[in-house]
Amino acid sequence: MRNQPGQTDPALIRNFCIIAHIDHGKSTLADRMLQITGVVDDRSMRAQYLDRMDIERERGITIKSQAVRLPWNGHVLNMIDTPGHVDFTYEVSRSLQACEGAILLVDAAQGIEAQTLANLYLAMHNDLHIIPVLNKIDLPAAQPEKFAEELAGLIGCDPSDVLRVSGKTGVGVKELLDHVVETVPAPVGDADAAARALIFDSVYDTYRGVVTYVRVVDGHLGKRERITMMSTQATHETLEIGVISPEPKVAEKGLGVGEVGYLITGVKDVRQSRVGDTVTSAARGATEMLAGYDHPRPMVFSGLYPIDGDEYPELREALDKLQLNDASLVYEPETSAALGFGFRVGFLGLLHMEIIRERLEREFGLSLISTAPNVVYRVVMEDGKELTVTNPSEFPTGGKIAQVFEPVTKSTILAPAEFIGAIMEICQGRRGQLQGMDYLSEDRVEIRYTLPLGEIIFDFFDQLKSRTRGYASLDYEPAGEQEADLVKVDILLQGEPVDAFSAIVHKDKAYGYGVDMAKKLRELIPRQQFEVPIQAAIGARVIARENIRAIRKDVLAKCYGGDISRKRKLLEKQKEGKKRMKMVGRVEVPQEAFVAALSTESSTDKAKK
Ligand SMILES: Nc1nc2c(ncn2[C@@H]2O[C@H](COP(=O)(O)OP(=O)(O)OP(=O)(O)O)[C@@H](O)[C@H]2O)c(=O)[nH]1
Prior knowledge:
By secondary structure, this protein is an alpha+beta fold. The protein is built from 15 helices and 31 strands.
C-alpha cells in the first residue's frame, strides 16, 4: 500500500493549516488538494468534501475543523481545514497548535479582511511558517498585483513571494503543495520520550462514541494501549487508532512523532476527552503537559423555550446530545412566568446561537421561542456581594447596586477609506472608544475600537454592512470588562412584569427600548375583554405606556337558534386557539406575539424586506 498510515519518518511530515477570512475559499482549496493528491477520486468528489454537517454544506460555511492526511511526492501532508467565522476562532487557535505552517489565503478580488488579520496574528503568535497565497485568480475582478503588494506589506515579504492559485480551477495548487513541502518545517519531537499528544478536536459519533483528534508531539501511541488524559488523570484503552485520508483508516503501527490522527476509546462524552488536554501513556506517563488552550467561554446567553410546553423533555435530551459534540455549549434549566419551562443557554456568539437553534429545530424537530440574547454582567452590591447575571430577570432591583460591569471587546474593522465617517458614527453611537487607525494601502483602513459586547450582539454587523455597502469586515475579541451605567427595563402587562421581555440596557437607551417594546406589543397582542395597559419601567418608575382597548369577542354571536353541535364546534375551535396562548396574569398573549416581539431583527432590517 502506497500510503501505509502510521509511523512515518517525521522528516517527511508537513503539518499545515489553511487560514482565511470567511468565504475566501478555504474549503474549495481543500477540495482541490484532496483531488490533486488523489485521496478522493474525481467520481466521489463533491463540493466542500470536508464539511460533513448538513448545515455546513447548506450555508457554505465550515464550523468544525477537519484534519486530513495527503500523500504528496513521498511526503505526508496533514492538512487542517479551519472555520473562518469569528465565533469559531477558538477552533482555529487549536488547529494552529497542531501545525508548523499556515497557508494564509486571501481572495484576490477582495484583499485583506478583518479575519485575515486576526488569523494571521494567531498564526504568528504560534510561531508558524506563513505562506501568503492569493486565491480566486480566475475571477475577472481579481487584482492580484494590488493585493500581492498589500499582503507582502502586511507580512514583510516580497510581492513576488505571494503565490497565486484558483481553488476553483486548480491553477497553482500543485505548486502550492510543493511549496508546503519545501518551506514548512518538519515536526520535531523526541521519539524515545514518554508519549505526549495534543487533543485538538473531539467529536461525538453515534456509532463509535467520541472520536478524539490528536497530534503526537513526543513518543508513540499504539492500539490497545492504556492512555491517560493528563488534566483529569482518567485512563482509557485505545480501541482504535488511525488517520483520516479522507475516510478513517486504521493505523496498525500506531502514531509516532509529528503525526496527526484519531483515537477511539469508547468514551461517550466529548467532555471526557477535552480539547487542549494532553494524552500520555498510562504505563509510562509524561510529567509535563503540553500547552493547552483556554477553554472557550460563552459570551452570549439566551433563553430557549419549547413553543409546546410538552416538548420540554425532548428539548433537554436534544441539548444533551448536542453537548456531546460541542463542549462550548452550556445550559441550565430556567423557568419563565411567561414562557414556562426552558433553558438558559450560553453561546460563543450570535452565529453559534443561530446554528444551535437551527440544529435543535431541524435535527430534533422542535419548535422554539428564544428570548433576546444578552451578555454576562457582573453586579456589585453596596454590601460588597457580587452577582453574575446571565438573565435580565435576575438583575437585582432596588437601590442597593453599587456598580455594574459589562464585557468589552477589542474590535477591528477593515473597510475602504471612504467609509471611515460612517463607521465612526456607528461605533460612537454604540459607546465605542476609538483606539487607533492605520492605512493598509492608500484606500483601505483598519480601524480599532473598544466596544461593549452587548452593543455588538444585536444588529451591529448588519448596520456596518449596510452603511458600507457590504465592504466592511469585523473581527472582535474579548478584552475584559468596564463599568457602565446599565439599568433593567421591565415590561408590564396590566401591572404584571413579563420576565421574557426584561432587558438590561444602557441608561441612555432605556427610554427608547421601553417605548419601542410597548408599541410593538400593542400591535401584537389582540384586544381582550378588558383594557390592558402596557408599561415599560425602570424599577418603580414608569418610562413608557400604551393601552390595548377592551373588546368582547363572542364566538357564539353568529349562532342564532339552537344548533348545539355547531356551537360546540366553535367552542372547540376557540379552545384550540387558546392552547397557543400564554397567560400573563389575566392577559392572553398569543405565542406569535412573543416570537415577533423577541425577534432580534432591527426595524431597519424589516424595512428592507
Ligand atoms: N471563482 C472562484 N470562486 C471560488 C474560488 N474558490 C472558492 N470560490 C467560491 O467562493 C465561495 C466561498 O468558498 P468556500 O471554499 O466555501 O470558502 P471558505 O473560506 O471555506 O468559507 P468558510 O468555510 O465559511 O470560512 C464559494 O462560492 C466558492 O465557490 C476560486 O478559486 N475561484
